[in-house]
Amino acid sequence: MTATGTGLTAPALPTPGRWEIDPGHADVSFTGRHFMVTKVRGRFTDVTGALTIAEDITRSQVDVVIGMASVSSGSADRDEHLRSAELFDVATFPEATFRSTRVAWGDPGSRAGTVTGDLTIHGVTRSVDLSVRFEGQVRDPWGGVRAVFSASTRVNREDFGVTWNVALEAGGLLVSKDIEITIDVETVLAG
């Protein structure tokens, strides 16, 4: 175990057990393009779930639920449009979920791997690969143990039925189809 310079310890793998996501320290963000040039970012603030880390890391499980109405992009008008039936349709599809189906980890001592799972957005489920990194773990001031994970992937939003767009007069689309997703979560070892 080594120190990371951030107060976290850096074992190659987290301690086996059930790690519950701390909703106050979870960031699920997305980035798309507006007018095919400008990056537009948003995040979801209602993120819950757990990671069950097995002795054999490849047998681990990830289950996450995202409250789609919690979307925040820095613009109240844009957030209202994102929640509308034209895009996320949160009245009909209030949650997005991710459930892992496979975990592949690097060589012994590696802190990175790939978690493949079923991502459901807008009522449509597709398999996606998350590039995952275990950032380390730390004992908190209240006697608990916390672990930090980061992940990223790229999806085509139209694959999930989120198809609203406007064709631009000069060519291209108002909103990009490709969306980058980045995840940073702090988890607490349960029990």
TrEMBL record:
Domain Lipid/polyisoprenoid-binding YceI-like: 18-188
InterPro entries: Lipid/polyisoprenoid-bd_YceI
Superkingdom of the source species: Bacteria
One Pfam family cited in the UniProt record for this chain: YceI
Protein name from the UniProt record: YceI family protein
